[in-house]
């Protein structure tokens, strides 16, 4: 009886967790300008409207540039830190790694305003590059968390064997280590891309007159007539995020299988 | 200092530098340095900058670069800021409580009742919504909780209520509901991890020694899961205090939080030093409140165990909690009339923090792992 109650509760919990996302496509395909029940019939006109909105295309372009740059930078920084944290012991390790992971728990508003104030005080214009810098800061901890798993699961004796057989440290890293952690690298790239694509606060504070997709969306929320289009855009974003996530998860599991380990959980 | 000395010094530094570079520690530090330098430049330096700025003042268009405490005096003394900070803490506290209480049974279910090969699927399903656009999810809650939204529609249709509920949107309740939903995965994952670590033979031993199912949960599972619960509390409480989007979209005027005020100071009122001051104060107050919560949890659990863990212990712990909270409330609300707003807040924070230090020093970390 106890087990049943728990199962029912967990299932209900999952349903509530998904409730908002399930509503999204309902309104995106709804033939009515008011976001409310009852639904009015099926239409794809809101998706068509997305195609002839130049400001949206501009924002999408900005977001893609930022997300790709962030994914690459954060993954590279993550590789350094994750390798150092799993392979070596050094003085102050817990403190250093803890400090690098800090953006994971720090409110994003704090990160955003401290970066903004530095830019303002230095007299620099904020823009795409400053959003990339901010996103890289908050994505690096996620990259480290994923890559640490990959490095920790790797069999160290493979590297030692390569060194014994005459490979240099660099060629060992390139030929042995990198291929073994590549599923983790791909997972990290995809996760950082997704986080950056969806991130709002830092982009909102730093975007100036070059809005990203979420900043554009925020601006549209003020106009009731634009809401169905926002729903259509949201549907596309959610589908894209879920697809990227499924691919990332597949790569992560493949990496675990390659390392010959049992799966013990998801990200984080 | 002669040139010879300088040269020898350089050679010595070079040699020891190379020696350090070849060592385990040196390699590790070198490898972590790019990431560390990045974090120092983009996190530590900007944070230091806002602390510095918080001591300056805005004088029309220019910033007065003379260190003064006037921003802090204003932030502590103005009833508006006090109310806003208090409300942010109250909303985040409620969100944390709701999130952790609801997450625990789910994490417990996944860890103890789901087949091992299905666990990662459950976790994946729970984390998916978290990765979708935050903005969109918050906005959808505005749709769900609206006057003519699905919640009111269903309740009306079922005949549970006669007219739409108006207390669920554009106030603090809506902020709590939305944030509790948004941070659910953050609470489940750490609790799940700590539950997974529990050695199942301990539970069997408890049952073999005659404990009931409920008692073995209370005396074995719960204490061992406490570190995960604590991590969940931290990971939900800290970011929610500084949330900007949710109060703006669903909070109305009664659900505004500190982040909205920070934004308004910087962009609308063009008073960057005041914005910086509020940000620094928010961080300090969150840190002190967390320290208070953790140390008092340790103290109460210690009192509970000292008195035998039964109803007497629970009563003792509860009494200690109620007395301290009543004193804090009294000083916070009556203090401004007695000794002024700023001094009373500072006295309160100092006393609470001294108490925390005393507890950390004197009260041992018990079997609850806090």
Please provide a written account of the structure.
The complex is a heterodimer of chains A (268) and B (370). Chain A is mainly α. Chain A is globular. Chain A has one domain: MetI-like fold, CATH 1.10.3720.10. In chain A, α1 packs across α11, α2 packs across α11 and α3 packs parallel to α6. Chain A starts with a helix and ends in a 10-residue tail after the last helix. Chain B has 16 helices and 2 strands. Chain B has 2 domains: 192 residues, MetI-like fold (Orthogonal Bundle); 87 residues, no CATH class. Chain B is an all-alpha fold. In chain B, strands 1-2 form a two-stranded antiparallel ribbon.
Describe the protein's topology.
The complex is a heterodimer of chains A (268) and B (370).
Chain A: H1 2-28, H2 45-51, H3 54-87, H4 93-101, H5 108-122, H6 128-153, H7 156-164, H8 169-198, H9 201-206, H10 213-220, H11 227-258
Helix pairs in contact in A: 1-11, 2-11, 3-6, 3-8, 6-8, 7-8, 8-11
Chain B: H1 3-22, H2 24-53, E1 57-59, E2 62-64, H3 70-77, H4 79-113, H5 116-131, H6 134-144, H7 150-157, H8 172-182, H9 184-196, H10 200-208, H11 213-241, H12 245-250, H13 258-268, H14 272-306, H15 311-339, H16 341-362
């Amino acid at each position: 009886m106890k087990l049943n109650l728990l199962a029912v509760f967990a299932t209900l919990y999952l349903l509530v967790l998904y409730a908002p996302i399930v509503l999204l496509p309902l309104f995106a395909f709804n033939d009515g300008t008011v976001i409310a029940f009852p639904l009015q019939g099926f239409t794809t006109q809101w998706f068509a409207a997305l195609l002839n909105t130049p400001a949206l295309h501009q924002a999408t372009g900005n977001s893609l540039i930022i997300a790709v740059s962030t994914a690459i930078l954060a993954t590279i920084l993550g590789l350094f830190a994750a390798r150092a944290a799993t392979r070596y012991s050094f003085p102050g390790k817990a403190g250093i790694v803890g400090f690098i992971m800090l953006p994971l728990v720090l409110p994003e508003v704090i990160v955003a305003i401290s970066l903004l104030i530095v830019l303002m005080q230095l007299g620099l214009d904020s823009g795409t590059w400053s959003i990339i810098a901010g996103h890289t800061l908050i994505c690096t901890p996620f990259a480290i968390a994923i890559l640490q798993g990959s490095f920790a699961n790797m069999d160290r004796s493979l590297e030692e064997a390569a060194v014994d057989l005459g490979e240099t440290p660099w060629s060992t890293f390139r030929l042995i280590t990198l291929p073994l952690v590549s599923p983790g690298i791909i997972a990290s790239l995809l996760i950082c891309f997704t986080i950056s694509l969806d991130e709002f606060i830092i982009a909102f504070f730093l975007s100036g007159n070059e809005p990203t997709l979420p900043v554009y969306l925020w601006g549209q929320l003020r106009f009731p007539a634009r809401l169905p289009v926002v729903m259509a855009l949201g549907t596309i974003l959610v589908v894209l995020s879920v697809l990227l996530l499924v691919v990332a998860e597949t790569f992560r599991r493949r990496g675990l299988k390659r390392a010959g380990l049992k799966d013990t959980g998801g990200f984080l | 200092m002669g040139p010879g000395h300088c040269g020898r010094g350089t050679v010595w530094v070079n040699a020891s530098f190379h020696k350090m570079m070849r060592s385990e520690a040196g390699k590790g530090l070198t490898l972590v340095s790019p990431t560390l330098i990045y974090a120092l430049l983009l996190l530590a330096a900007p944070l230091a900058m806002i602390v510095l700025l918080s001591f300056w003042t805005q004088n029309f268009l220019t910033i007065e670069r003379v260190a003064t405490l006037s921003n802090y005096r204003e932030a502590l003394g103005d009833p508006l800021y006090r109310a806003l900070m208090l409300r942010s803490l109250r909303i985040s506290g409620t969100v944390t409580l709701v999130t952790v209480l609801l997450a625990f049974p789910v994490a417990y279910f996944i860890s103890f009742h789901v087949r091992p090969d299905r666990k990662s699927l459950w976790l994946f399903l729970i984390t998916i919504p978290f990765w979708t656009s935050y903005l969109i999810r918050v906005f959808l809650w505005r749709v769900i909780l609206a006057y003519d939204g699905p919640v009111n529609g269903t309740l009306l249709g079922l005949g549970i209520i006669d007219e739409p509920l108006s207390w669920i949107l554009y106030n603090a309740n809506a902020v709590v509901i939305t944030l509790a939903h948004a941070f659910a995965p953050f609470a489940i994952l750490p609790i799940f991890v700590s539950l997974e670590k529990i050695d199942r033979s301990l539970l069997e031993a408890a049952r073999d020694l005659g404990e009931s199912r409920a008692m073995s949960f209370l005396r074995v599972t719960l204490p061992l899961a406490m570190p995960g619960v604590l991590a969940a509390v931290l990971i939900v409480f800290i970011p929610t205090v500084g949330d900007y989007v949710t109060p703006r979209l669903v909070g109305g005027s009664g659900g505004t939080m500190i982040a909205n005020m920070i934004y308004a100071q910087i962009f609308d009122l063009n008073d960057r030093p005041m914005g910086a001051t509020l940000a620094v104060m928010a961080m300090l107050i969150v840190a002190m409140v967390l320290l208070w919560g953790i140390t008092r949890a340790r103290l109460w659990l210690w009192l509970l165990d000292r008195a035998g863990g039964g109803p007497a212990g629970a009563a003792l712990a509860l009494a200690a909690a109620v007395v301290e909270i009543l004193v804090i409330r009294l000083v916070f609300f009556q203090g401004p009339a007695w000794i002024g707003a700023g001094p009373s807040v500072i006295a309160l924070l100092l006393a609470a923090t001294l108490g925390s230090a005393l507890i950390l020093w004197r009260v041992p970390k018990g079997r609850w792992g806090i």
